[in-house]
Amino acid sequence: MYQIKHANDWSMMTDKAIVNHLCLQLRQLRLDQNMTQEQLAERSGLGRATISRIEKGQSVSLLTLIQMLRALNRLDLLDAFQQVSPEISPLQLLKEQKPRYRASGKRSSDDKEPSEW
């Protein structure tokens, strides 16, 4: 099993290795709470066979991950995703900007108002 030592190690792993690591961590979270796969299945609304497949890294979706984390009372592990703030694309920024007007422009002779002086 590949052990994560530093945050930078994630980039050195294949996608499948990351999934396997996360699934093993889910299994460890369950075991730390002294919970069987059957108990986790009941609490999460998933089947026991689904829990088993997930822990082996065979079948994982984001929805099932969230269901398992909720059942394990560990939704706090998703906090890292709250720090991500969307950036506005340069094109979207241009669309949202108001048009700029000149402070003083040329006036035609027809637009002149008579001076009171």
Helical residue percent band = 40-55%
The fraction of residues in strands falls at under 5%
Q: If classified by CATH, what would the architecture of the domain at 1-80 be? A: Orthogonal Bundle
Helix- and strand-based class? mainly alpha
What does this structure look like?
Helix 2 (37-44) crosses helix 3 (48-55) and helix 2 (37-44) crosses helix 4 (62-71). The chain has helices spanning 15-32, 37-44, 48-55, 62-71, 90-96. The protein is built from 5 helices and no strands. The longest helix has 18 residues, at 15-32. It is 44% helix and 0% strand. The chain is mainly α and 117 residues long. The model has no long low-confidence stretch (mean pLDDT 82). It has a domain at 1-80: Orthogonal Bundle (434 Repressor (Amino-terminal Domain)).
Keywords:
0% strand, 117 residues, 434 Repressor (Amino-terminal Domain), mainly alpha, 5 helices
Secondary structure blueprint with pairings:
Blueprint: H1 15-32, H2 37-44, H3 48-55, H4 62-71, H5 90-96
Helix pairs in contact: 2-3, 2-4
Short description:
With 117 residues, the protein is mainly alpha-helical. Helix content is 44%, strand content 0%. It has a domain at 1-80: Orthogonal Bundle (434 Repressor (Amino-terminal Domain)).
